[in-house]
Amino acid sequence: MSEITLQDIIKPENLVYKKTSLMTNKALSYCPGCGHGTTHRLIMEVIEELGKENETIGVAPVGCSVLAYEFMNVDMQEAAHGRAPALATAIKRLWPGKVVFTYQGDGDLAAIGTAETIHACNRGEKIVMVFINNGIYGMTGGQMAPTTLPGMKTATSPYGRDVATMGNPLKMTELVATLPGTYYVTRQSVQTPAAVRKAKKAIKKAFQNQLDDKPGVSFIEVVSNCNSGWKMEPVQSNIWMEENMFPFYQIGDIKVDGKLVDR
Fold it and tell me: What are the boundaries of each domain within the chain?
């Protein structure tokens, strides 16, 4: 039996995985275990597979998402806090042939940017919106966000979110699914290999909708952990997410091809 060499392993026919060229070589600055890096990679893999790297424009506003332009090797535009959907609307209308997406966290999309989110979805802008929901303001110190769960402790709700005084968590994805301008609305996660595969399939469907000139927004929520904000180890944070976030933020498609899914 002949000895297997390194050259045998790296032959194209034996290649199992290769880093997409659309991720820069800069080391990710996200906390270890964070879902941002994985979601970045999935978006860039999809863009590369679709062959649209030279026609794509991403919009990243304020929060952890603002770092996206450091790592995504496509044209990127920074937006003011919460205003990414408005800016993406302008870009898509000025250059309808471009592939346009926003990349936003929950503190951005579901708080200061609620109006921009709702109105872009209601108008049916032909863009992709990627929404990272970790239930907290991750970049600015772990404050309570609109998506923080009832009873969940944060820097500004140290005794847990009290619904009676602080209100209920905002389910943005279910909310935008009811609007006539959304075409595809789904909620995914990236904490396991199986979840990553499903999330990539959803992301690819969203971008393909735009390429096919489907009428409306494709909206993808990715439920993620924030182990530093939650004061947990990465593995523990994923377990906590599955046990606490998923029952409230149910994973799966909510609207497909302009029609609500019976869940």
Answer: 28-258
pTM: 0.93
Q: For the chain, give the mean pLDDT.
A: 94
Q: According to the model, what pLDDT value does residue 8 have?
A: 67
125 vs 261: CA distance, rounded Å: 21
**What is the spatial distance between Cα 144 and Cα 158, in angstroms, rounded to a whole number?**
9
Give the residues across from 188 on adjacent strands.
222
Domain spanning 28-258, CATH class: alpha beta
Q: With residue 100 as reference, give the H or E element that holds it.
A: strand 99-105
**What's the CA gap between 35 and 19, in Å, rounded?**
17
Quote the strand ranges of the chain, DSSP E.
56-60, 75-78, 99-105, 128-133, 136-137, 143-144, 182-189, 217-223, 252-256, 259-260
How do residues 13-72 score in pLDDT, each as one tens digit? 766 778 899 999 999 999 989 999 999 999 999 999 999 999 999 999 998 888 899 999
* 53 CB-near residues (< 8 Å, 6+ apart): 21, 22, 47, 73, 74
Residue 89, number of CB atoms within 10 A of its CB: 22
Count the neighbouring beta carbons within 10 Å of the beta carbon of residue 94.
9
Q: Do residues 47 and 69 touch, judged by C-beta distance below 8 A?
A: no
Strands 136-137 and 252-256: unpaired
d(CA 208, CA 225): 27
How far, in Å, CA of 107 to CA of 81, rounded? 9
Structure tokens at 20: 């997409």
Distance of CA 27 to the CA centre of its chain: 20
